[in-house]
Please model this.
Amino acid sequence: MSLIIKELMQIGESALEKAGCMDPRIDAELLMMFLMKINKQQLFIKSPTLLDEKTCEAYFKLIDVRAGGTPVHYITGEQEFMGIPFKVNENVLIPRQDTETLVEEIISDVKALTSQKKIPRGGYMILDLCCGSGAIGVSLSKLLKDVRVTASDVSSGAIGVAKENAQNAGVAKLMKFVESDLFGALRKGIGGVKFHIIASNPPYIRHAIIPTLQREIAEHEPLMALDGGEDGLDFYRRIITAAPDYLRPDGSLYLEIGHDQGSDVCDLIRETDRFDDITVVRDLAGHDRVAKCRLKAPEKKSRGRKK
Model:
């Protein structure tokens, strides 16, 4: 059976809607663009085009996979973030617009410092902790000048995806990749690298909530990148406690947070008594999305008078 593209997508949309997919029309379009290797503008122009039976069958197979719960971006293998195409697969979380708030905040702060001619010698040293696909680190390397990014993740599969994304974005030479459980493989103290900025989108979903998430997330995205422990704060505790040892004087920490975690994460930061300028930044929807703070300057030791 041959059908025109517009009709084919309508059938696909209906099937995805019945399967309970959240954005059936968008997904039906994305799968058609992926199959035909065209962009949205070309899809609009070609919508009256008649497709042969073989192509129609290939499209319905993609619809069946999506209807079965596989996220559309794992099917197409790509997701755009900060205007940059990123390869994604089941080794990494699919980059989301929420995380763009963190990247935009860092870019704004770095540009403000740059305008004041406060560029450190050798550029800004940035750590993308729990890097996943590399969305944060690759975007900062691509969109900022004078930065050197280290991206780390406990998953070797994620590191492989992040390296490929850095290569595709043309920033591989500006980045270093480390397989590490948080700071575990990073040397601290004398001889260790310290950073002007540490940025992280760590696992922060409460363990009990994970089974209630959309099936696309709960059944397909990597559990280790989602599970933040009983209260969702396990990784924040570890990062906030250790971060001062890896920050340069006056360095900054940026953490993506859940919409209801701003108060709790700020309390954890205050408890260390190592940070100043603790701020929560909201996303475009008005939800708490980023907690940021600056390392306190070390206290000067007073010298006693000689008797």
